[in-house]
Design brief:
The structure is a homodimer. With about 210 residues, chain A is an alpha+beta fold. In chain A, about 55% of the residues lie in helices and about 15% in strands. In chain A, strands 1-2-4-3 form a four-stranded antiparallel β-sheet, covered by helices on one side. The first copy, chain A, is elongated, with a radius of gyration of 37 Å.
Chain lengths: ~210, ~210
DNA sequence: ATGTACACGTGACCC
DNA sequence: TGGGTCACGTGTACA
């Protein structure tokens, strides 16, 4: 609702600041007269102080608006496939996005990744610290499939003091991709595991070679 | 900036609507007089139309504000651990949340779920359609570990016409947990796989029993 | 007293 | 043209 003070403030603001800045056909004298006559408020220090305060106020409000609108802009940028860029739509789409992402996360947390990683055609070995905090190392490698591969890997793992938390293997077209989650592996153990796995990947052990031929 | 029209609009608004609703000591007659005298604008149809339009306008603007603020409220509700509830903060936290969730999703998509599911102590079998659209079935089961389990599972899978897209096994304390992603399985094949796996879980095949004893 | 945050009505602008 | 969106300055309440 528009209060009386609000209306008066508009008049005061117009008279004291705006009228001097912008040329206007507004009958300035009339307003100042009526203003003074009806309320007997002289153009005093108090009035000027009030106007200064109003200026500060509007500037602060502008800063607030800019802060908020800046966030709207970043939202508009990070939102995918946004057509209508108006504020309400941005918020609605953002909410949709958050809910969607949360659903996705909870699904991925129980189901695991949807898309399947196939064995690489070239021999590859990769060790990465999975999540720094827990000392879990994830070893991924692709190599030629052969019957004794499993036990060769087991032997390689036995040579370093560490626990295999989880393992995953996939075989396709004579190639095998393996992922091992290893826990409690020092930096030296990590290097040892890496070189041992490299050997396992490329040359069959002597006993197994006999077995396959 | 405050324009002349704006100031006048405040006065008109005050005079025509507010003054009647709220009792006020404001010199109403004075304003209406000066208004009429200085611009010779009678309280005509045109003026009333203008006021009606202004009312519609402000009401529409209020609806717009409510729409936006409603979205703010839902954001405040779905945001976790929000302390400051002011608009700018809500937007900032929302942006943070979206980025965080996206990072989480991309990490889960490559690494898989962080927390490891251990083999259940009790024998369990569970088949779920992983993502309806692709006809992939995820078969999860925990059972006692034994040497021929692998080949028994392979035989069970061979009895239904379907491809194993991916497999995951974990053994801990004599128990094994297996997850199989099977593709191209009809509803009848699903039932068959389920019963076959149930058998595999509980009783070793004849050949393998000989091997283990 | 000082600042922060919000709702409001309004002028401007764009289909 | 109106219907919708925005920025603005202001009133007001709260700390």
């Amino acid at each position: 609702m528009v209060s009386f003070q609000q209306s008066m403030q508009h008049i005061r603001n117009y008279y004291y600041s705006e009228a001097q800045m912008i040329g206007s056909s507004f009958p300035r004298r009339f307003i100042s007269q009526t203003y003074k006559n009806s309320f007997s408020k002289p153009r005093s220090n108090a009035a000027e102080i009030k106007l200064l305060a109003a200026k500060k106020h509007s500037e602060a409000e502008k800063r607030r608006r800019m802060r908020i609108n800046g966030q709207y802009d970043t939202l508009r940028n990070i939102l995918p496939n946004i057509i209508k860029k108006d504020k309400a739509t941005v918020l609605v789409e953002t909410i949709k996005q958050v809910k969607e992402l949360r659903k996705k996360v909870s699904k991925l947390e129980v189901d695991g990744p949807k898309e399947v990683k196939f064995p690489s055609g070239a021999d590859r070995l990769n060790l990465v610290k999975c999540n720094g905090e827990e000392g879990i190392v994830k070893a991924t490698f692709s190599c030629e499939d052969r019957p004794e591969l499993m036990s060769a890997i087991a032997r390689a793992l036995g040579s370093v003091q560490a626990n295999v938390i989880k393992a995953e293997m996939m075989t396709l077209g004579g190639r095998t991709r393996s992922v091992l989650w290893v826990q409690g592996l020092g930096d030296e153990g990590l290097g040892k595991l890496k070189s041992t796995l490299k050997v396992v990947m490329h040359k069959p052990t002597f006993r197994m070679r006999h077995f396959t031929q």
